[in-house]
Amino acid sequence: MLASHLFAHLARLRLIRRWPLMYNVQPENVAEHSLQVAMVAHALALIKNHCFGGKVDANQVATLALFHDASEVLTGDLPTPVKYYNPNIADEYKKIEAAAEQRLMAMAPDPLKPAYQGLFTSQPEDAEARALVKDADTLCAYLKCLQELNLGNHEFGPAKRRLEAMLANRMNDAIRYFLDEFVPSFSLSLDDINDDPEHNLVSPRQ
Known about the structure:
With 206 residues, the protein is mainly α. The protein has one domain (6-187): Orthogonal Bundle (Hypothetical protein af1432). 61% of the residues lie in helices and 0% in strands. The protein is built from 11 helices and no strands. It has helices spanning 6-10, 30-52, 58-66, 72-75, 80-83, 87-107, 113-120, 127-150, 157-170, 173-181, 190-194. Helix 2 packs antiparallel against helix 3, helix 2 packs across helix 8 and helix 3 (58-66) crosses helix 8. It is globular and about 55 Å long.
């Protein structure tokens, strides 16, 4: 049996930089981003289920999120201003992404190909789950902007405004809940978070 190169490729996601056209105080790679998106997408699914009567599979959502940018190990992260410069470029890039997804799926051993097809390519029955992944992807990009701005990097100001508009267009109960419940803490320092009297266990200064 020939060895599969699938996971050797996926392991290189940590080498793919995000936000490549912008100065970053804290550089971010696709592997880090994928983990955060998976956690946020899982949270959105739980919020939808437990607070708003949803019935989505939170574990499926998290798994789809882990692989949502896997094709970038072959294509790189094309900056948003380039990707969406005009409809022709956007359409052609989607074709490139689809080809990369097919190539990754082809690397899987034959018994696993059907399972990985559902992770690398959209299936009609996954529409609700993938919408939550997209919501989480947008939220995580917004959180990255907040982080950079809090570190004094004003280059992320226009991106923050663009992502605020995207979130407004995608707004739903789960996104609103996440914004209200979790996002304010991203503007606090570590000491501020640990000094919260309701949640403090041990201060890092002790």
